[in-house]
Design goal:
Largest sheet: 8 strands, mixed
CATH topology of the largest domain: Rossmann fold
Strand order of the largest sheet: 3-2-1-4-5-6-18-19
Structural class: alpha/beta
Distance between the termini: 42 Å
Shape: globular
Number of strands: 19
CATH superfamily of the largest domain: NAD(P)-binding Rossmann-like Domain
Number of domains: 2
Length: about 375
């Protein structure tokens, strides 16, 4: 089986889809790996590093895309490259299928089997393939480091002859993978941390990390499949905002990571709430790629609003691209290895398998994923 790893063409993407170590692992399974010339250059991996791992180097991107049985990359494929792919080719990457309807239909019409890595089910078996979790983990860390570097105070308490410095107050909204890592990182830096999530099950996780859980009586909430929060009603969302006001006003740093899978992120922090924060405070909106949690945040920008610094940078994991690439390529390798047949030396596409059923979006000329089919039907209606 021929696997091709093209270079990321988005100039803002610093991650590399496959590192030499993972390349060698897949070559060991019997795969024929071809990587585009300079694929690892952004992380200082040379073509020689990939050749030593057993890969061949391609200087013709178009030809390699045409010949590959499987293509893997970080970002979704450019529309202009889809028709280049071989009929029946397996394409593995982030796809954002809920919002990329044209792209998905183009992949289907080209008879490409498109795997959306963010759609891999969050099950015990698929944990090692869970790209969303691995990247969100790093994003949570980066969000805290950005806040620490931007604020004009330090996180920990200090008792010195010159006086006592109180620890900063950090408020984290949304306690999924990213939120939990943000809590852990802020606590390691010595901050006083409190956190909120609509899922009652999150309280124990928050407390286990040494933070205080903020309770808001919202009635029935719970979580959807895969551990994501369920959408709140308009009344619940308003009740949540009313309770958030005082915690946000007291916080030195607010980090928002509240997302609803497959939907636009809810606005939790309004402009009026930001105005009530102390001048010099910092907000990091981690949900900006799905619309943002902060009313005044701007996509991939840092702004000042009423004396408060609001950061809403896209691709936070890309700011620690070395480890992000390592984790991403390990996730992809685990996915390929799980479905690898040692006898035929190829990826076995069993669409009855629960993992593939969840993450394969297009196959045999059709949009075959039920979740995406239903999402498109609802939008049409």
């Amino acid at each position: 089986m021929r696997i091709f790893v093209p270079k990321e063409i988005d100039p803002t993407e610093t991650r590399v889809p496959m590192l030499p170590g993972v390349t060698g692992k897949l070559v060991g399974l019997g795969a024929k790996i071809e990587v585009e010339q300079g694929v690892g250059g952004r992380l200082n991996y040379t073509d020689s590093d990939y050749e030593r791992a057993g890969a061949s180097i391609s200087s013709n991107r178009t030809r390699s895309l045409q010949d590959a049985d499987l293509v893997t990359r970080v970002r979704k494929p450019p529309l202009e490259e889809i028709d280049t792919l071989k009929r029946g080719c397996i394409h593995i990457s982030f796809l954002d299928p809920f919002n990329e309807r044209e792209l998905v239909h183009r992949l289907a019409s080209a008879h490409v089997t498109a795997v959306s890595m963010e759609m891999i089910p969050r099950t015990a078996v698929a944990q090692k393939m869970d790209v969303l979790s691995s990247q969100a983990n790093l994003g949570g860390y980066v969000a805290v480091i950005l806040a620490a570097a931007s604020i004009d105070r330090i996180f920990p308490m200090l008792i010195t002859p010159a006086g006592t410095i109180k620890p900063l107050r950090v408020f984290i909204i949304g306690v999924g993978v990213a939120g939990l890592q943000a809590i852990a990182t802020a606590r390691r830096l010595g901050a006083s941390v409190e956190a909120f999530d609509t899922r009652p099950a999150a309280e124990e996780q928050v407390r286990s990390l040494g933070a205080r859980f903020v309770k808001v009586e919202l009635g029935e909430t719970g979580e959807a499949a895969g551990g994501y929060a369920k959408p709140l009603t308009a009344e619940q969302l308003q009740k949540q905002r009313d309770e958030m006001v005082k915690h946000i006003a007291l916080a030195d740093v607010v980090i928002t990571a509240a997302q609803v899978f497959g939907r636009k992120a809810p606005i939790i922090v309004t402009a009026e709430m930001v105005r009530q924060m102390k001048p010099g405070s910092v907000i990091v909106d981690m949900a900006i790629e799905s619309g943002g949690n902060v009313e005044c945040s701007k996509y991939n920008e840092e702004i000042e609003f009423g004396g408060v610094r609001v950061m809403a940078f896209a691709n936070l994991p890309g700011r620690v691209a070395g480890h992000a690439s390592e984790m991403f390529s390990n996730n992809v390798a685990a996915f390929v290895e799980h479905f690898w047949d040692n006898y035929t030396k190829s990826f076995q596409l069993d669409l009855t398998n629960v993992i593939l059923k969840g993450c394969v979006i297009t196959h045999a000329g059709q949009v075959c994923n039920e979740v995406i089919q239903n999402a498109y039907a609802q939008k049409t209606a």
